[in-house]
Amino acid sequence: MMAAELDLSDIQGTVLRNRPMPYFGSYLVFTISDASAARQLLQRLVPHVTSAADWDNPPEDAWINVVFSFAGLRKLVDRAEDLAGFPAEFRQGMARRNVYLGDVGASDPSNWDLPHGGNGFDIGLLIMAGNLELKEEKLAIGHAALEGLAGVELAARLDVSVPSTMREHFGYVDGISRPFIEGQGGLPLPGQDVVKAGEFILGHENELGGIARLEGPEALWRNGTFIAIRKIRQDVAAFRKFLRDNAEAAGGEEMLAAKMMGRWRSGAPLALSPDGDDAGLAKDPGRNNDFAYNDDDPDGRKTPLGSHIRRVNPRDGLKETLTDIRLHRVLRRGFSYGPELPEDTFDDDGIDRGIVLAIINADPGRQFEFVQAQWINDGDFISQGERTDPIIGRRDRTDDFQFPAKPVRRRVTGLPDFTLVKGGEHVFLPSIPGLRWLSARQG
């Protein structure tokens, strides 16, 4: 690895830190009515903000990180021109990008229940821990930092934790595949693609061969990044019913679930275990992500072209096209919220449950938004027409999923909305020196 080592002590920890397992966390978002109070809050918080130093062997399995919506940054940055060079997607806010992103119908921002930059979200605390006691300790730090600051008010709180199954609510093991960032230290796992640091961290070389940078004060943006936050409600009962009703034979639910995802629910990839689940493979980080598509499975006979994992990371499957997938890689973190739906229950209980996605990218337009609009919610790039992602895609255009099978191709229809977007925002995660810069501004 010839890339320069990253300034890990400057980078907020969530960019690189591995998610604890089990995990317990909270998303807390606040409004700012007094910029001086917000600066005081930052001054109190900065000593407790966790960096990415020792990311692979942290001294404490917990962290606090701080993010801002564009509305929040505008309240702390004196000169409007200092923010004019930030990406348009961030400045507009995710709610205003809804048509392009496919957040329509029941997923329209008018139905969201999580505050965003257009309706009362300025600054957020992301707290994550490996146990409840550590989480409470981090929350106590946040409460103490807010003491006496009337100009910063809590707008919403969303708690997350892994279900007792150690899987997300649809039953899949989550968080297996992620890119390796040049300069992070260590060595990539087998099958892990190595990506330029500037795809995720500003101030470093990106896959376009330039330095990922913004116009404006370098002290604000260097070693920072953007995170696309998505709160997604999962209709677990509908998902279970669909698998049950469309299974071809007894036990066929698991094969259909694997075809839709591209992995068995254990995490074993169809590319390496196409005919049945393999729990040992699923648990082996040296093998469970070590596969490609172009030479062995170009037509999707093992891993369907339209499956979820093949859409969000086509690997070498687009090798013969003009698309450079390295320009569209993201770092994805997923955190479940809400209670589990009891096993073998096929009726919705009306309780909100789902997943919060935190998608890290240095260029929201060509990374998260491209993947969401072009790969998840369109099928042209894989000759699937308007077919969308079978797990999380929009359903107002098409509602079917097809894949090669014997003796004839299999097509299932009537896919319901397994997921609904209930909130979202592009947020900026400054470096720790960037937080200090913001805290020292004079209003």
From TrEMBL:
Sequence ranges assigned to domain DyP dimeric alpha+beta barrel in this UniProt record: 10-131
One Pfam family matching this protein: DyP_N
Molecular function terms, GO-annotated: peroxidase activity
PROSITE patterns, per database record: DYP_PEROXIDASE
Repeat is among the record's keywords: no
Cofactor: heme b
InterPro entries (alphabetical): Dimeric_a/b-barrel (IPR011008), DyP_N (IPR049509), Dyp_peroxidase (IPR006314)
Location of region: Disordered: 274-311
Keywords per UniProt: Iron, Metal-binding, Oxidoreductase, Peroxidase
Record protein name field: Dyp-type peroxidase
Organism this protein belongs to: Rhizobium puerariae
